[in-house]
Design a protein that fits this description.
Blueprint lengths: L8 H5 L4 H13 L12 E4 L6 H10 L5 E4 L8 H7 L1 H13 L3 E2 L7 H11 L5 E2 L11 H6 L1 H9 L11 E4 L2 H13 L4 E9 L2 E6 L7 H12 L10 E5 L11 E8 L4 E11 L5 E7 L5 H21 L3 E9 L6 E7 L6 H11 L8 E9 L7 H7 L13 E7 L5 E8 L2 H14 L5
Parallel strand pairs: 1-2, 3-4
Antiparallel strand pairs: 5-8, 6-7, 6-8, 9-10, 9-12, 10-11, 11-14, 12-13, 14-16, 15-16
Helix pairs in contact: 4-6, 9-10
Amino acid sequence: MANIAEAFEEVLEGIKNPEERRMRIMLEHNLCDRTLLWERDNKIIITPLPIPPLLLEKNKEVLSFKNCLNVFPKNVDINLSEAIIKDPVVLRKLITIIKNNPGINISPYAVTPSFISLVCYLKHQNLNFAVQERPAEGSDWTVQYLDSKIGSRTEIDKIKSKNINTPQSVICRNKSEAVSAAKWFYVKDFSCVIKANFGEGGWGTIMIKTREYKSWKDALEKINAEFFTDSIWDNSLILVEEYIPVKKGIFGGYPSSELLLSKKGYQVTYICDQIVTKDGKFLGITLGKNSLNGKIKNKIKKVSMLVGEKFWKMGYRGFFDIDFVLSGKNQTPYIIETNMRRTGGTHIFDTAKSVFGENWDKKTFIISQDSFYYGEKILSGKVIFEKMREILFPINKDKKGVIISIINKWQPTFGFIVIEKSFDAAIKMHSKIKNIWNIKN
């Protein structure tokens, strides 16, 4: 279930400008195309809007997916779970599928209150199905709590040791306190990051780097401009933390680990490096051979297992990721947040496993990007595939090339996955994409 926008419903509903709200919702819904790449065969993909038929068929073909069906309600605003219950055709289809496949698992992007309501509704129909990613009984609250910047930081700081590092931080009740905290950092000549408690993908993040502002007055103007033009800062706690100067990796020096917590225990599924803009906005990831230094990777895995154990004992179940930054001084990983859901790397990891099997990390280097701007005019999927045809996966039956993961219906962007044998080859392939679309930088 691609209930991506639903996971951020409270924040999206708080946007006062109707057009901005609509665009934010569409931005989240647009990411649902990549849901097709989660896991492998024998699946029903429920999305708020149909996956473009050409994209659906092409990816099913190149990845040899079997028995995959896309189902979608007639009308969805933000909440996919509610839309399913209100759509008799989709609801009837879903009930029939469960009856014909007793014990089938229902797997969401994120466990939300509305998703839990949908599960309860289906249970009342005496249907036999599983929800393996729902928290343990009495622990549903852990999803939102640990997904917040302040909740996760509070719990991780309880287990801080020589292996776990987090930035120095201040919890603020409102914008006024956040300004005071940011000034405190600035006066001490420390750069800082201001974070909305439920920001996502770089939305709700302000970086105040001291070297970029001549005075506190200039920095304050930047903060106020953000505070008073974006409703994400309203009526919520705000975290202000020290900015950790980054030790650059291949792309960004922002490693991330994904974990899966089940009834049996916890495991790290993959570790990647994130591609982010200088303002902290997420673009994609790198994954595979040599995407991270081996020692750093081992440190991150050790820390991730400690956090996984903590969250598992609290009753959380399902996917989540831990985002790090690498300190420029000594390459120490600092935890900056957790995201209690599938993430922007889940479909990349699942694709790597689909193509290369369990030893994927020894066979490939992958670069992904979710929003590649190709021009001013929105083009059809047919045109996009045609322009990219010479580099589409697989190239001459070899396991390399580009998989298109997302086709944006509202902006001139698409998402892609570059699959290559090495870092150098992946960079060359990335450059070919830019050349095809005449992108200069």
